[in-house]
Amino acid sequence: MKTRKKLLPFLSLVLIFAFVISACAAPAAAPAPGAEAPAAAEPTEAPAAEASVTEAEMAPGMGGSAIGFLYVGPCDDYGYNQAACAGADAVGTAFPDMEILEAENVPENQEAERVMETMIRQGAKIIFPTSYGHLDPALEVAKRHPDVVFLHQGGQKTAENLGTYFGTIWETVYLSGVAAGHMSETGKLGYIVAFPIPQVLLNINAFTLGARSVNPDATTTVVFTASWCDPGQQAEAVNSLVAQDVDVITQHQDCTKTIIETAERAGVMSVGYHADASTLAPEGWITGSMWDWSELYAKIVASVEDGTWAGGPYSGNYRTGVSEGSVKLAPFGKNVPQAVQDEIAALQAQLLSGEFFPFEGPIVDQNGVEQIAAGVRLSVGELESTNYLIEGVVGTIPQ
Amino acid sequence: MLEAILAGAIRSGTSVLFACLGETVSERAGIVNLGTEGSMLGGALAAFAATAYTGNPYAGVLAGAAAGAIFALLHAWLVVTRNANQLVSGLVVMILAQGVTAFFGRTFVDKQIVGLNTQPIPFLSDIPFVGPILFQHDILTYLAVPLAIALWYGFYRTKWGLVLRAVGERDDVAYASGYNPDRVRYAAVTLGGALAGIGGAQLSVAYTLNWVEEMTQGRGLVAVALVIFAAWSPLRAILGCYLFGGATALQLALQAQGIPISPFFLSMVPYLLTLFVLLLVAQKQRYAMPEGLRAVFEGKGNYSTQNR
After folding, report:
1. What is the mean pLDDT of chain B?
2. Is the pLDDT of residue A4 over 60?
3. Are strands A363-364 and A370-372 parallel, antiparallel or unpaired?
4. In the prediction, which pLDDT does B209 show?
């Protein structure tokens, strides 16, 4: 009885302790981005020194002591954010005098505004909000700080001091589709996606076009998970595709690790997206599309720093692709035959020279309606508003 | 097709079943724990982290159970000792767990682990149809149904089960019989949290082999709803949870078949189904509700202590 009596006070003590710890951890957890920025911030160079330089005549974005980067997820997600973080590292190397402020897991709401304001207070005059949903918060902050330049990844709205940039990743998605068409034995490919936004539909179409260019009977089965990252759903989506004899699986999700690992365990092949994940699937990895922002980020920062940003290409909706190396094909897996690798290299060269354009008409949609007339090459902007799935795609766009 | 859906039902339903069984134990003692979601999340992260450090997924499962128990203990302290509103406290624990796991989970996002692999049971797994559905899973999945049966036995065939139910029904009776109801509640809520933690562990180290922020995606809350559907019976919980798992697997399988139904409608199906059966059975279920829960659901928010 005695020991029992002592147990409760002891438990309460442990609990109080645990509570205090978690209470301390919680606020730190919520604004982790904010908390991390100062942590990353090594000795803040006195902004006063910079400020003394004649700043009256400076163009927006010039004269900052830091560059800020916001990510919607963590930097090592084998995905979208990892690619953006790598770009930030490259900017740090290219501009050693600049402090690189990074904030991960920044939600796409007013929290993002707060993070940007903090970065500006820390001396940032150039800010990269890298997630699609960071656009509106960035536009708000841009209004309040006309002297700061914002560079948004993937958006289509601009402002006096806010430009956007993005890569035409469907080029490499097409090429990886060609590889998938060659590698698939069943001719059934699977595409696990989240929501039917134009970028996603465009990628599905590109992948299918690529596969059907080498195997006219190939089909792509689309599965929507209604979440950018729900590993449980992803694993089950892979399983249900495998049950339908799909033997190559690709995805347009924010986190890609579960899908690639589950596919590998199920003995099917995978095509990556966002970043090189070949180490996750030593047997089944075919190739993938990945971002390489290092050069573009550095070019944009350079243009801001020398005052040529305003009125230049980067102050509008800038789009680039394989031609500038912002979008790359990931290394091929060990089981992809050399002949296939060579064919894709040749195709990539034709794509670069403009001799070849994947979306050259005629393109027919699922219902047999001609969406792009024969011989027509749409502009990037027109392609970015794709709202149909092409012939050969199994699955429907939710209305 | 049917085989794939049923196997998928078991894969998707197992983590929910563990959480659901845990919540059944807790509610049998008269405590509703919405923090089950938090215990699952904590369990998922702790299991993944421990597996990543030690390389041993079984150590991971233990860590998951411990983490789940810790979040549940916090809930128990708030509602038993501090007599807080159970629903509010549960939600607070859930949100706290989301923050804590997001914070500490940062470094584990890119880790690769060797988890609890699928272990087909010799001979049984070769039976056509039944084999792939029932006998080609990981060890935790095999344990889930026996655990439910053991809990049923515990509830209705052992003295401790009687004490537990007495606390949930009329705690003054338990008190008069010489048992401290609060200690029973602490034990039940903690055990419930540990089971939810194991459910989370199943998700992270057996099913997906990954840790992702908020990876439970509401499965813990579904588990709480399914306890009501199951009328606080561990055996019916098996049915409820695998029905939920089946709906999840079904919607993905229908999409993989290319059947033209809106995937967003389909992804609502598991939740709609849960709501629908709740609606159907909730009225009938009232007789089965432990007395002690009435106060929680009917306004007061905490159990009654006026008899002591």
Report:
1. 90
2. no
3. antiparallel
4. 93
In this complex, the residue of A73, A227, A236 whose CB is nearest that of residue B252 is: A236
Least Cα separation, residue A337 to chain B (angstroms): 28
Residue B308 belongs to some domain of the structure = no
**Residue A399: pLDDT band by 50, 70, 90 thresholds?**
low
Chain B residues with CB under 8 Å of A396 CB are 260-263
- Which chain B residue shows the shortest CA-CA distance from A23? B96
- CB < 8 Å to B8, chain A: 236, 239-240
Q: Which of A38-52, A56-70, A346-360, B118-132 is predicted with the least confidence, judged by mean pLDDT?
A: A38-52
Residue A213 CB contacts under 8 Å (≥ 6 apart), including other chains: A177, A178, A181
Q: Does a structural domain hold residue B305?
A: no
Q: What local confidence, expressed as pLDDT, does residue A276 receive?
A: 87
Which residues, listed in sequence order, are joined to residue A328 by a DSSP beta bridge?
A: A290
Exposure letters B54-81 (e unless 16+ CB within 10 A, then b): eeebeebbbbbbbbbbbbbbbbbbbbbe
Mind listing the pLDDT tens digit for each residue in A63-76? Answer: 889 999 999 888 88
Backbone angles phi, psi at A333, to 5 degrees: -75, 165
Q: Choose which CATH entry (2.60.120.280, 3.40.50.2300, 1.10.275.10, 3.40.50.1100) describes domain A63-167+293-324.
A: 3.40.50.2300
Domain that holds residue B127: 2-297
Q: Is residue B69 part of a domain?
A: yes
Of the candidates B182, B171, B191, the one whose C-alpha atom is nearest the C-alpha of residue B73 is: B191
N-to-C CA span, chain B: 58
Side-chain-side CA neighbours of residue A294 (13 Å)? 11
CATH number of A170-288+326-394: 3.40.50.2300
Q: What is the biggest distance separating any 2 CA atoms in chain A, rounded to whole angstroms?
A: 89
CA of A18 vs chain B CAs: smallest distance (Å): 8
Q: Which of A304-313, A354-363, A390-399, B202-211 has the highest mean pLDDT?
A: B202-211
Q: Residues of CATH 3.40.50.2300 domain(s) within chain A? A: 63-167+293-324, 170-288+326-394
**Rounded distance between C-alpha atoms, residue B214 and residue B44, angstroms:** 10
Cα gap B283→A196, rounded to integer Å: 39
Q: What is the residue type of A396?
A: T
**ipTM attached to this prediction:** 0.89
pLDDT for B30 beyond 60: yes
Report yes or no: B163 and B174 within 8 Å, Cβ to Cβ. yes
Strands A188-193, A219-224: pairing kind = parallel
| pLDDT of res. B259 | 84
Which one has a higher pLDDT value, A24 or A121?
Answer: A121
Nearest to A130 by CA among A99, A93, A85: A85
Q: Which residues of A touch B96 (CB under 8 A)?
A: 22, 26
B262, closest residue in chain A (CA to CA) = A398
* Residue pair A240/A248 in contact by the 8 Å Cβ criterion: no
